[in-house]
Amino acid sequence: MSIKPRAVRGRPLLSQAKIVDKALALLQKIPLKEVTMRRLAQELDTTPAALYAYIKNQQDLFNAVTERVISGIDLRDLDHETDWREMLRKWARAVRERQLQFPHVTTIVQVNPHTPVAWFEITEPQLRALQMAGLSGYALMDTSRCFSRVVLGSILNEIMLEAAMIRLEREDADAALEHLSPRGRAAIENLLPYLGDQDNDALFEFTINCVIRGIESALSSEH
Amino acid sequence: MSIKPRAVRGRPLLSQAKIVDKALALLQKIPLKEVTMRRLAQELDTTPAALYAYIKNQQDLFNAVTERVISGIDLRDLDHETDWREMLRKWARAVRERQLQFPHVTTIVQVNPHTPVAWFEITEPQLRALQMAGLSGYALMDTSRCFSRVVLGSILNEIMLEAAMIRLEREDADAALEHLSPRGRAAIENLLPYLGDQDNDALFEFTINCVIRGIESALSSEH
DNA sequence: ACCTGAACACCGTTCAAGT
DNA sequence: ACCTGAACACCGTTCAAGT
After folding, report:
1. Integer Cα distance of B39 and B51 in angstroms
2. Helix axis angle, B58-71 relative to B16-27, nearest 10°?
3. Could you report the per-residue pLDDT of B66-103, keeping only the tens digit for each?
4. All residues at 6 or more sequence positions from B192 whose CB lies less than 8 Å from its CB, including other chains
5. What share of chain B has pLDDT > 90, as a percent?
6. Angle, CA of B35, B41 and B46, to the nearest 5°
7. Nearest nucleotide to B9 by CA–C1' distance?
8. DSSP character for B77?
9. At a CB cut-off of 8 Å and minimum separation 6, what does B8 contact?
10. Furthest-apart CA pair in chain B: how many Å?
11. Is A173 near strand D, with its CB below 7 A from some atom of it?
12. CA torsion, ordered B103, B104, B106, B107, to nearest 10 deg
């Protein structure tokens, strides 16, 4: 039997950081929905009510968790890169790598839209890359937003839809085809042989390269 | 005082379709979280338990709602288009228009990832456009997935993040800057004058055109 | 100062019982 | 056959009371 430790004067057992740590650890094992205040308290060996001394509410906690994930994106690899195209690729890969590490955290975005402050910090190297490409002012702004959207959107899509997609494609494709119009059916049937080979890594690279080529093409058409 | 109608033999008051109708109507006014079984029952002038005769559970209901939104995407405008680039643009705009009409439904995707069967049907004209561009086999598959991801990702991003983003940019940008590294700060400060003019329509067009140029560029580099 | 226990106002879902 | 009422097992959050 272990004796439950008690707080001694000025030394609380809990802290914001400890709660966020535990939430992040839990989110690597279980989906967002199951990370309840009660479960969190249990894992921290305390009561749900005790958590509220350190966090305002559950939404606030999830914001802190998201912030933690975003600030953990490692962009050091970009520092000595001289080609802006390769910089953008490295940026996109770094963001994706971190998000795929915490897929359940990525789903918070949808439950609770909140742009973390850390995102500003992460965006800086991306802006540098686009400046190296010769962009500034509104064009820089638009291109940056476009690139961020494509990268974040792709990752969101990958994490949230891909699993369901593959299941549907493999198991239910035939059933789904029954309900389609003849034209839709013909289009999909042609593609059935290619459906199985979903490779998310390759698709991500393909998408990023597509956008980078688009940016390049916009640049050269201006000159 | 109105008298509550009662079901007479073989003519139930409720139906799947009526429940989905009401859910969709509600979702135009209130966010997903507030569309509870109790609220839905109340609006339909019945009890929560009665709903379960027509739908398996809440998740199933939300799937049906999503299906309804997706099948409502109007792609007739694409039928007589001869330029594949313009076809892709029209496809993207049609998908966005419908999703923006039901922003709260779009957030279901994240709560409950499930690719609606109707999505197959919607994808067909997009595939036709890409075939017109000269694509087939794996290249067609990859490009289609890439384009769908960019379009869906952008819309998801727009609906879920943009509101928070604008708020943050306008109100909290200064506060956020305090926490940044000097380098990040300099990068963002340069852009502050341009931050206010967020135009989602223009950004969407910009993004779509960027990807279309990327696809074009990939096509021509193969020949 | 820090934490606990119990309560409040909600959920989704089930099922015996009514008409 | 169709619907109701009550119950079950959960939520997030609050707050008086304990140590």
Report:
1. 11
2. 80
3. 999 999 999 999 999 999 999 999 999 999 999 999 99
4. B173
5. 62
6. 175
7. D1
8. G
9. none
10. 76
11. no
12. 130
- Partner residue opposite B107 with nearest CB, options A110, A203, A211: A110
Cβ–Cβ under 8 Å, residues B19 and B39 = no
pLDDT 10s digits, A51-61: 999 999 999 99
Average pLDDT, chain B: 86
For residue B40, the surrounding DSSP H or E stretch is helix B37-43
Prediction pTM value: 0.90
Length of chain B: 223
CA–CA separation, B26 and A122 (whole Å): 38
pLDDT > 90? residue B221: no
Mutate to test the interface with B, among A89, A149, A152, A183 (most CBs of B within 10 A): A149
Q: What is the mean pLDDT of residues A136-143?
A: 91
Top pLDDT among B110 and B178 is at B178
More confident: A26 or A182: A26
Residue among A138, A164, A203 minimizing CB distance to B113: A164
| Gap between the Cα atoms of A213 and A209, Å rounded | 6
pLDDT in tens, B175-189: 667 777 787 777 777
Return left, alpha or beta for B7; rule: phi > 0 is left, psi -120 to 50 is alpha, else beta: beta
Higher pLDDT, B39 or A196: B39
- Top residue of B34, B122, B213 to mutate, by most chain A CBs within 10 Å, is B213
What is the spatial distance between Cα A99 and Cα A73, in angstroms, rounded to a whole number? Answer: 8
Give me A38's structure tokens: 């009660």
**Gap between the Cα atoms of A139 and A147, Å rounded:** 12
Q: Name the residue in chain A with its Cα closest to that of B130.
A: A187
Tell me the CA–C1' distance in angstroms for B33 and D12: 14
A160 close to B109: Cβ distance less than 8 angstroms: yes
Q: Is B175 helix (H, G, I), strand (E, B) or coil?
A: helix
Q: From the CA of A99, how many Å to the nearest CA of chain B?
A: 15
